[in-house]
Each structure stands twice: as C-alpha cells, then as structure tokens.
C-alpha cells in the first residue's frame, strides 16, 4: 500500500472510531488530503462536530456517526458508501495515534504544494521568456515564497534558507529557451557597444554581471571588459583581444579572435543601458526557471523531511532574489513592499506539539474502551469493528 494512502485512511478511521480525536487534529485541513473522498469525509466529520452531533456526548460511538458522515460527504463527492467507511476503520491500527497519522498527511501535502507552485513558477518563467517580460515569474516567485513560509508555520519550523548538506541530485538541463537567437543577438550587440563606446561600461557595471549572459562565452567577454574598466585601462578591440588572451580564453577555445572581431565589427549607435536591461530581463526568467526546477527536484525527493525541504527550497530561491534586486536597480523600480507577516493566529502550541508528535515509546494512560472503536491493549485485534 502507498504509505500516504495508508496514513490518510488511518486518520479518517481514527476519527470514525473516536470523534474526540478531532480536537487533536485542528491543525489539519481537508485540502491536506490527496484523495477527494478523504477530503470530503474529513470536512464532513468536522462539520458534524461543529454542529454538535450526538456522538460527541455519548460514551459509545453510535453507528449514526459513520452513516451521517458518509451522507454529508456524499453531497460533495460521488461513490462513497458505508462499506468504504468501515474499510477506513479497519485501516486504523490505533485511534490514539491520530496526530502522528495526521502529521504524515501534512507531510504529503507539503510536498505536493511545493511541487505544484514550483511548476507554476517554471511555466510563468517560460511564458515571460516568450513575451519579453518578467512580471509573471516574479509574481509566482513571491507566491511560492509565501507558500513556503505558511507551510513552515504549519509544520512548526522556522522558515530560513538552508544550504543542502550534500549536493542534490543533478537537475535535468533546461531545454533551449524560446527566443534564444534573439537573446544571443542582444548580448552580442551589447558587447559591441561596450567595446566601442568608452563610457558605456559606466551605464551597466553597477548591476550587470557575467552570469546574466545566456552564452557563457559572452559572459567571459563581459568579464574581460569589466576587468579593463576596473583597472582604468582603455577599452577597444585591441585591448579586449589582449585581455582575452591573458585570461586563457583563446587557448581553451572559449573564444576565438574571429568571434571577437565579428562582435566588434559593424556596430552602430546603441544604448548600453537599454541593451543591458534586455540581457537582465532574460537573466531573470532564466534564473526563475532554474530555481523552479531545482525546487521541484527537491520536492520529489521523498527522503527529504518537510522542514529541510522548505528551507532548501527557500535557499533555491536565493539566486532569483539576487537577480531581481539587480533588475530593480537597472530599471529604477522600487522593491516591492514586503507583505506583513500574518499574525500568530495559526495552530496554538498544543496543536503544533501534536503535529510534531512522533511515534516514540511513551506511557499511555488507559482510556475507556468504546464498543467497536478501539480494542484494549491486551486484546487481539478483531477481524472487523462494529458501532452500536
């Protein structure tokens, strides 16, 4: 059986056996369940509890607790039967372990939610690359960061970027970006302007970095231009060719003298600042797509605990935050006002403690046995459970 499916069944089964377990699961929401039938049943059980169902006041759980839950849930999903409800009851080993089962369900929900939002960020980045925009990617990056903070609160951990202790599995290479030819042309044009106009580097050196170039060779050439500018040496095609040779770029095949001559020849008037913004725009969408793919790979690693997953995902968003800050400097756009952190109206400490509960051995106080709900510790588990 799928472990997540077993945990979902055990949570519902524990509440069907013992309605009082709902008070230990207030931090768990219906949409944390993967199966729609389980979402509907958990929501129905909460509604019956809130409506003051008679089962809450009786020592023995009446059969109406199960039948009413199935009837209420059936108004939202199809195919639910009392037989399936009893299947869930049988799937619950111990009703008292409901908080631990719920923790497993929440863990699955965290992995799914991060995966879904990483996919949306990647799609937005690809769409922005087509449209020559960055707003969609930056918006979904903010949404993903907010989701990670919310999930950290639900899990009971502090959201903070943490570098993985071990290198993560290699992320598959990105497919060629759309408009790649146009991006390469913009980069060559910018480099030509920087090589021909002595003061052009002053317009971009404060926010444009070699890593912003899609073509690594163009990034290395920009690095050479930056080195000449930093040393206060004149910039032209001769000094630039000499710098590339000193850095070994000609010897290792990164660049050739013919490539450099092609970039520098035939350049017309151009604005380095405007061309630099085009390169930065491409860098933002490319970095957003890379971060999204890295986060999705983290979320698909079932061996990664939710707390580490959240913090590693926040770390994977770091490069995008850095590129965004330089993009805002380049375009003169103010940084977005940070959304105030939500007031601590989330799970109270007792519920967070329940969410963080683990199945470690501990003394268990005896509780009254409800007929058909939970067997006594010494009793052998019967083949089926009954409600009065």
TrEMBL record:
Keyword ATP-binding in record: yes
Keyword Nucleotide-binding: yes
Domain DNA helicase DnaB-like N-terminal: start-end pairs: 6-106, 185-252
Record's keyword terms, sorted: ATP-binding, DNA replication, DNA-binding, Helicase, Hydrolase, Nucleotide-binding
Ranges of compositional bias, category Low complexity: 370-382
PANTHER family: REPLICATIVE DNA HELICASE, REPLICATIVE DNA HELICASE DNAB
GO biological process: DNA replication
Protein name: Replicative DNA helicase
Phylogenetic placement of the source organism: Bacteria, Bacillati, Actinomycetota, Actinomycetes, Kitasatosporales
Species in which this protein is naturally found: Streptomyces zagrosensis
Pro residues bias spans: 335-350
A single Gene Ontology CC term: cytosol
Sample GO molecular function, one term: ATP binding
Region spans: Disordered: 330-388
């Amino acid at each position: 059986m799928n472990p997540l499916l077993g945990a979902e069944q055990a949570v519902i089964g524990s509440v069907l056996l013992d309605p009082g377990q709902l008070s230990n699961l207030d931090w768990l929401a219906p949409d944390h369940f993967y199966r729609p039938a389980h979402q509907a049943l958990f929501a129905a059980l909460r509604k019956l509890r809130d409506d003051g169902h008679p089962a809450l006041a009786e020592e023995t759980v009446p059969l109406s607790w199960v039948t009413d839950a199935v009837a209420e849930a059936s108004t939202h999903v199809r195919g639910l039967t009392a037989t399936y409800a009893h299947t869930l009851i049988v799937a619950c080993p111990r009703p008292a372990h409901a908080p631990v089962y719920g923790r497993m369900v929440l863990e699955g929900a965290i992995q799914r939610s991060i995966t879904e939002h990483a996919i949306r960020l990647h799609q937005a980045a690809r769409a922005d690359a087509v449209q020559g925009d960055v707003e969609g990617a930056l918006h979904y990056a903010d949404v993903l960061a907010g989701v990670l903070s919310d999930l950290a609160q639900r899990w009971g951990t502090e959201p903070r970027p943490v570098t993985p202790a071990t290198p993560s599995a290699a992320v598959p290479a990105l497919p060629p970006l759309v408009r790649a030819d146009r991006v390469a042309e913009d980069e060559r044009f910018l480099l030509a302007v920087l090589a021909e106009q002595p003061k052009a580097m002053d317009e971009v050196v404060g926010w444009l970095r070699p890593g912003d170039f899609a073509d690594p060779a163009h990034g290395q050439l920009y690095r050479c231009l930056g080195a000449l500018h930093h040393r206060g040496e004149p910039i032209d095609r001769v000094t630039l060719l000499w710098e590339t040779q000193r850095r070994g770029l000609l010897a290792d095949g990164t660049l050739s003298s013919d490539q450099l001559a092609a970039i520098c020849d035939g350049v017309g008037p151009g604005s380095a600042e405007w061309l630099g913004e085009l390169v930065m725009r491409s860098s933002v969408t490319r970095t957003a797509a890379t971060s999204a793919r890295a986060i999705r790979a983290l979320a698909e690693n079932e061996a990664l605990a939710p707390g580490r997953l959240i913090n590693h995902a926040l770390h994977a968003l770091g490069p995008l935050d850095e590129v965004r800050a330089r993009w805002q400097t380049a375009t003169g756009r103010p940084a977005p006002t940070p959304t105030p952190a939500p007031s601590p109206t989330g799970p109270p400490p007792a519920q967070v403690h329940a969410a963080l509960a683990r199945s470690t051995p501990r003394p268990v106080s005896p509780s009254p046995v409800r007929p058909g709900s939970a067997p006594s510790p010494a009793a052998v588990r019967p083949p089926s459970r009954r409600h009065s």
